[in-house]
Amino acid sequence: MESQVDLGFLRHALMPSWNSVSPQFRTPLSVALLAGFFTYLAIAGSILPGKLVPGVALADATRLHYRCNGLLSLLLLVGLLGIGANMGFVSPTAISDRGLELLSTTFVFSFLVCKLRVDIWSVTLVLYFSGCKSQSKGSSLKPHISGNLLHDWWLGIQLNPHFMGIDLKFFFVRAGMMGWLLINLSILMKSIQDGALSQSMILYQLFCALYILDYFVHEEYMTSTWDIIAERLGFMLVFGDLVWIPFTFSIQGWWLLRNSVELTTASSVANCFVFLIGYMVFRGANKQKHMFKKNPKAPIWGKPPKVVGGKLLASGYWGIARHCNYLGDLLLALSFSLPCGISSPIPYFYPIYLLILLIWRERRDEARCAEKYREIWAEYRKLVPWRILPYVY
Ligand code: NDP
Q: What is the similarity comment for this entry (predicted)?
């Protein structure tokens, strides 16, 4: 009986409700929120000023250019939402009140067809078919069709599909990271509204907000990451960006809304240290590689860099482990969960998932680099034997 009630509740919570935005427009609120969010991102991304960053050279020697105005877009959006909430146009808890509904709507969005002209952004099926038509395009648009429809739909067939001048891969990852912050802010408002704002919630919110803001401050680094340079845009990436990032990375916040945790001062201080060390390693390593790619002679930690075969950096963080940046990210992920205490494994979903993902990804990257750099990579491996964590892995 109880499970029937729970299932009924779940079905109800997942279904887009017809609580419309206004009597004139009978649109489910979750659909309106998503459509509004995507429309804002498309407009802001196209018109707001930002540094134009050249991407890595493609197979045909051309480069795409990315307008890195994510930080400005995000700050403006949060400002506009703040004003809207103050004036009573939007509810600050609109997202946290209907998290499951938004989740299912976003899932459907990432499953269905891209139809910007009409008024709905969606994605993967049409990417598949439009991709098939672009045989004559440059290497970033040239379709890679395996013949297995499911495989091609899942992994994608184009490296950098565009829609109305918008680079969809860059757009979706931006939407995911911003969506995560918006969900968190709505959770924060909900806990304030409920009179249940705790130290745990403040720490969780602070760490995530700093991480997300930092991501947008350094948005140009994104242009040289694996997702942008190597992964094609299929359902896997779209789902990862639009559903997985915002809805699973915020599990700790949802959990804290329903559970209270008493943190000692010592554990809070230790938690801050984990965050700071994680941040230092994560940002430091990614920055060193980025600087090295731009200028292979740029000093690392005040000294000339140690370089293998003229191409691989083997000093700084890249001399400690071959993927020290993953170590930093894992420490950060842990710091987002520690405010929830250790009474439940649920808030540890994100660090556990990230551990599995990054070990898998490190293996794939290792294979890619071994093939690309051959004897240079073997020499680098000898010089830096650890993959992620020195003396452990
Ligand atoms: P990296 O930024 O580590 O990029 C790997 C590439 O860097 C390699 O393929 C190679 O590319 C180059 N490279 C590797 N070693 C060296 C070296 N010693 N010197 C010079 N170049 C080198 O990987 P990712 O793109 O996977 O990750 C970027 C960041 O994103 C990481 O910090 C990661 O933690 C984070 N991330 C977070 C996720 C999350 O869900 N939170 C998911 C995935 C990543 P080339 O051929 O160009 O030389």
A: Belongs to the ERG4/ERG24 family.
The rounded Å distance from CA 317 to ligand 1 centre is 13
363 lines ligand 1 (CB under 6 A): no
Q: What is the pTM of this model?
A: 0.84
What residue's CA is closest to ligand 1, atom 9? 365
**How far is 123 from 112, CA to CA, in rounded Å?**
6
pLDDT above 60: residue 23:
no
Ligand 1 contact, 279 CB (< 6 A): no
Nearest CA to ligand 1 atom 26: 226
- CA–CA gap between residue 326 and residue 322 (Å, rounded): 9
Output the residue whose Cα is nearest ligand 1's atom 37. Answer: 329
Burial code (b: 16+ CB inside 10 Å, e: under 16) for 125-159 equals eebbebbeeeeebeebbbbeeeeeeeebbbbbbbb
* Of the listed ranges 4-13, 178-187, 326-335, 357-366, the one predicted with least confidence: 4-13
Q: Give the C-alpha distances (Å, rounded to integers) separating 192 from 188, 209, 264, 317.
A: 6, 17, 21, 40
Phi then psi for 187, rounded to 5 degrees? -65, -40
